[in-house]
Amino acid sequence: MDAGLAGVEALSGIPGTVGAAPVQNIGAHGQELGERLVGIDFLDYATGEVMRLDARDLGLGYRTSALKRGRAGIVLAVELDLDAGGWSGPIAYAQLASALQVELGERVPLADARRAVLALRASKGMVLDAADPDSVSAGSFFTNPIVSESFARAMPADAPRWPIVSEEPERVLAPGEDVPALASAEYQVKLSAAWLIERSGISRGFTLPGSGAAISTKHTLAIVNRGGATAADVAQLASLVQTRVLAEFGVRLHPEPVFVGVEL
Ligand SMILES: Cc1cc2nc3c(=O)[nH]c(=O)nc-3n(C[C@H](O)[C@H](O)[C@H](O)COP(=O)(O)OP(=O)(O)OC[C@H]3O[C@@H](n4cnc5c(N)ncnc54)[C@H](O)[C@@H]3O)c2cc1C
């Protein structure tokens, strides 16, 4: 962005390294790394060799990739296709458009886009900040569930819904990777995990007795460590959230973080 290059400005403030970015195809506020990713240099543990992988060979999806699903190795370099000129890409997220006081699809100076994104993220405790206890989290804990159109129609009228086009690009499966199920003929719809959690009766700040983990006071989608939370505390709270949403709406939420040593 300092060089005036646009295409990933909406990802401002997502904590992490460049190499980890393609692993879960990071995304936020209407942009996803995969839209700009050309390819990666990859040290493949299976062969011990450094190879070039094109983005279309990475099985990128919503917060996932073949790397997250188990293709072992190290991302050594990332090539992005960015736009010169100092203007943002088309604003594709309603809250961001309204913060910038522009219509969806408009462009703004790159620095304005970054500033607005960082402010929006901070209001949800999503920028790492030692002074903000709500930022002591793993980010969004659950992905937004994707359901069929007919299922989405049966949701309450005020449930946020975003129709999505599921276009799995042609690609070579990684060794050991499962063959994906055929995409359904009907289009799919993304629901808001935060809305589902709130409407299933779990409010901001919610915690269990004796637990160090709590729902963020700024955002129902983040589970924060209020001090001394164990992985088991986090998993217990996450499991309660999952159960409540499943009972209320029949939707199973899937965690975005990878679990090591604990089960959900
Ligand atoms: C406050 C907060 C807000 C967040 N907001 C967002 C958000 O808006 N959108 C979003 O998508 N994510 C978000 N996240 C999640 C997180 O920022 C991303 O997953 C990020 O990519 C993690 O980077 P990391 O370097 O910390 O990777 P780690 O968490 O250390 O690693 C993630 C995975 O990638 C693997 N990995 C790491 N580096 C490499 C490499 N070079 N080669 C191969 N594998 C590697 C690790 O083994 C691990 O499996 C948020 C997290 C926090 C804490």
From TrEMBL:
Catalytic reactions on record: UDP-N-acetyl-alpha-D-muramate + NADP(+) = UDP-N-acetyl-3-O-(1-carboxyvinyl)-alpha-D-glucosamine + NADPH + H(+)
Cell compartments where the protein resides: Cytoplasm
Pathway noted in the entry: Cell wall biogenesis; peptidoglycan biosynthesis
Predominant location category: cytoplasm
EC number(s) given by UniProt: 1.3.1.98
Keywords: Cell cycle, Cell division, Cell shape, Cell wall biogenesis/degradation, Cytoplasm, FAD, Flavoprotein, NADP, Oxidoreductase, Peptidoglycan synthesis
InterPro entries cross-referenced by the UniProt entry: FAD-bd_PCMH-like_sf, FAD-bd_PCMH_sub2, MurB, MurB_C, MurB_C_sf
Domain UDP-N-acetylenolpyruvoylglucosamine reductase C-terminal: 114-260
Pfam families: MurB_C (PF02873)
Catalytic residues of the enzyme: 63, 140 (proton donor), 256
Cofactor requirement: FAD
Biological role: Cell wall formation.
Family membership noted in the UniProt record: Belongs to the MurB family.
Protein name: UDP-N-acetylenolpyruvoylglucosamine reductase
Organism: Homoserinibacter gongjuensis
Gene: murB
